[in-house]
């Protein structure tokens, strides 16, 4: 089996073989450890990471240390989007939420490759756009949906990015990321557990009934996920960048 066919990262797996071949000599595997910060606000980004296994949270923080989760990144994506968008740093933090590993390449190598491969750049920019859609969905969920719907959405998003049903997390972390006070979160988790949707243990939540979580989340979940599929799975552009012709 080729290295590309063995990839769990959906971006790498979807690339035409020639595009993957450009990246492959620069890719090395690195571990992802819970709590590790892979992208720090205001710090130059040295590497781009295609997640193979594990979950990262993209976190916004204010000067008074208040935090909120903007997005989740797992095997569907990559860490280091500013490199694709012409800058070398982010205002947000990328923190490992669930351990695993990733394919890593140096940011300078990525810039050089993208500079000579507009089709690959366009493809990865579509992923960047899909992440902005997810961030918009998070903003909508946090302001227009109830705590139980937001919690169901978050659990489903984590479940999408894991190979099993166990999600490593703590009440404290979940409370911070969702912007929910601890008593409200505990009440919602308890209700989910009593309904048979999840099982909670110290440091972990196990998904037991995904269908029930989908029903609970309702319209709060699904929009960004559908847009990801449209942008990145249903096919490449009808007219690749390299074949584009100027209008007469």
What can be said about this structure in brief?
Helix content is 42%, strand content 23%.
Strand content: 15-25%
Q: Tell me the distance between the termini.
A: 46 Å
The major beta sheet can be summarized as: 6 strands, antiparallel
What coarse outline follows from CA principal-axis ratios? globular
Features:
alpha+beta; three-stranded antiparallel sheet; 248 residues; 10 helices; six-stranded antiparallel sheet; disordered C terminus
Topology record:
Layout: H1 10-14, H2 17-23, E1 28-32, E2 37-39, E3 47-61, E4 67-73, E5 78-79, H3 81-84, E6 93-106, H4 107-115, H5 118-144, H6 147-160, E7 166-168, H7 171-178, H8 182-194, E8 198-201, E9 204-207, H9 210-217, H10 223-232
Antiparallel strand pairs: 1-6, 2-6, 3-4, 3-5, 3-6, 7-9, 8-9
Helix pairs in contact: 5-10, 6-9
Pfam families: cNMP_binding, HTH_Crp_2
Domain HTH crp-type: 145-211
Keywords: DNA-binding, Transcription, Transcription regulation
């Amino acid at each position: 089996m080729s290295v590309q066919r063995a990839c769990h990262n959906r971006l790498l797996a979807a690339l035409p073989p020639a595009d993957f071949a450009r990246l492959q000599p620069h890719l090395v595997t690195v571990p992802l450890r819970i709590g590790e910060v892979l992208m720090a606000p205001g710090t130059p980004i040295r590497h781009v990471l295609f997640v193979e296994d594990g979950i990262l949270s993209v976190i916004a923080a204010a000067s008074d240390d208040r935090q909120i989760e903007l997005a989740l990144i797992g095997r569907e994506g990559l860490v280091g989007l500013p490199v694709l968008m012409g800058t070398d740093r982010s205002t947000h933090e990328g923190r490992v939420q669930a351990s695993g590993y990733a394919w890593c390449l140096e940011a300078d190598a990525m810039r050089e490759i993208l500079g000579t491969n507009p089709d690959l750049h366009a493809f990865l920019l579509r992923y960047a756009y899909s992440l902005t859609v997810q961030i918009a969905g998070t903003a909508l969920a946090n302001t227009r949906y109830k705590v139980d719907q937001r919690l169901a959405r978050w659990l489903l998003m984590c479940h999408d990015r894991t190979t099993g049903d166990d999600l490593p997390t703590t009440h404290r972390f979940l409370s911070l990321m969702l912007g929910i006070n601890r008593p409200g979160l505990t009440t919602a988790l308890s209700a989910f557990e009593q309904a048979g949707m999840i099982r909670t243990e110290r440091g972990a939540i196990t998904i037991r009934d995904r269908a029930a979580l989908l029903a609970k989340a309702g319209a709060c979940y699904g929009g960004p996920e559908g847009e990801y599929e449209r942008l990145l799975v249903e096919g490449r552009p009808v007219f690749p960048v390299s074949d584009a012709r100027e209008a007469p």
